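2024-03-11 09:14:02 INFO worker-7 job=invfold-0412 stage=load source=structure_tokens
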């Protein structure tokens, strides 16, 4: 069951072709599978998520915005034993906007909204002492920025935090990654364990209260993006057929964003989580012929605690996904996938007080990727 180039490319179908909708602010899943491909390899992809997050109790018909994020990677086998890689993704983020006509989350036509954006650039060097083992490590460059507006009775109305805005200006900082992989090509077995460090940011911050009447500029807000561990596994189970699994742990239970003046005014954090995230995806990939292969998967995410912030009122999910890959030639392919998420019900809270429940929510994810071997 020795892998040729087309067959080994089925491993890419084990990746989250479609975007993650995970606990906390987790988005991309931070895969390094492109770096573990054989030979010289490059890929580029885009993922789109269309969520529906509502609360019948609070008369919110949808507060989750659609979003998309790109990814890219290049891996070069410099020598028989040394490989180099560069990976780009957007690991964490949030994008939400409440209806402007709902007084619980809006006032004077202005609505509660949040936008958080991160970018990661990971450089990797790998050492392969034998055909079976690969040890790798490298630095991670990360940028973070965000804006949040709180409006409505959920935050105490216009006289309290219901007229609050914060601008967290972009900051860059460094972390690191390390891991190892083991493979037996003859049986299509590959396993990898990857650790990513936390990354500490100090963002220049401006806060305003009373719709901008009271301005508090020139503060610093500490944001520590969490450490994580990814475990990836695949093995051949029949001719042209692979089983695969991914397990991911993210250390959210100590994550908090606590701006200076908001904390002084309310004694609370802007965002925090009470539990770590555990997620898993399992599935099967199959090569149908030299041009076509596909995959099917089932996923689970634990969430990061409940009650949760009103800025992201879901708790984990179950998902099912389908992916297809077309390879016109041995050295390149086009891949597409779709995933459906059943989002977990959650109680939304502000300042430790539950304001309502969000139930019966879902999301659709789409992904497109091209890969090239050179």
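2024-03-11 09:14:09 INFO worker-7 stage=emit residues=374
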């Amino acid at each position: 069951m020795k892998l040729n180039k087309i067959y080994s490319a089925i491993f890419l179908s084990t990746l989250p072709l479609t975007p993650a909708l995970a606990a906390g602010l987790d988005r991309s899943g931070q895969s390094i599978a492109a770096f573990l491909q054989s030979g010289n390899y490059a890929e580029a992809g885009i993922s789109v998520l269309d969520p529906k997050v509502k609360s019948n109790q609070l008369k919110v018909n949808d507060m989750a915005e659609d979003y998309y994020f790109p990814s890219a990677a290049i891996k070069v086998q410099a020598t028989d034993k040394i490989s180099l890689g560069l990976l780009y993704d957007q690991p964490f983020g949030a994008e939400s906007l409440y209806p402007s006509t709902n007084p619980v989350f809006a006032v004077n036509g202005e609505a509660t909204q949040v936008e958080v954006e991160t970018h990661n650039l990971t450089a990797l060097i790998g050492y392969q002492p034998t055909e079976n083992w690969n040890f790798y490590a490298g630095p991670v460059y990360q940028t973070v920025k965000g804006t949040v507006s709180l409006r409505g009775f959920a935050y105490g109305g216009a006289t309290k935090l219901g007229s609050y805005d914060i601008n967290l200006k972009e900051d860059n900082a460094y972390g690191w990654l390390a891991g190892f992989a083991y493979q037996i090509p003859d049986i299509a077995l590959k396993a990898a364990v990857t650790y990513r460090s936390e990354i500490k940011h100090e963002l220049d911050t401006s806060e305003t209260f009373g719709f901008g009447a009271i301005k508090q500029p020139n503060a610093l807000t500490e944001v520590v993006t969490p450490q994580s561990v990814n475990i990836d596994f695949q093995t051949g189970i029949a001719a042209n057929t692979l089983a695969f699994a991914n397990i991911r742990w993210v250390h959210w239970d100590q994550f908090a964003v606590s701006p200076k003046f908001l904390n002084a005014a309310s004694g609370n954090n802007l965002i925090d989580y009470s539990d770590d995230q555990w997620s898993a995806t399992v599935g099967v990939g199959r090569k149908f012929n030299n041009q076509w292969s596909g995959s099917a998967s089932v996923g689970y995410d634990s969430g990061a605690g409940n009650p949760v912030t009103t800025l992201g009122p879901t708790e984990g999910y179950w998902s099912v996904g389908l992916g297809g890959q077309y390879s016109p030639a041995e050295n390149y392919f086009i891949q597409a996938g779709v995933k459906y998420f059943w989002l977990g019900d959650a109680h939304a809270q502000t300042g430790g007080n539950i304001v309502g429940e969000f139930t019966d929510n879902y999301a659709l994810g789409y992904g497109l990727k091209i890969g090239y071997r050179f």
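2024-03-11 09:14:09 INFO worker-7 stage=report msg="The two ends are 23 Å apart (CA to CA)."
2024-03-11 09:14:10 INFO worker-7 job finished
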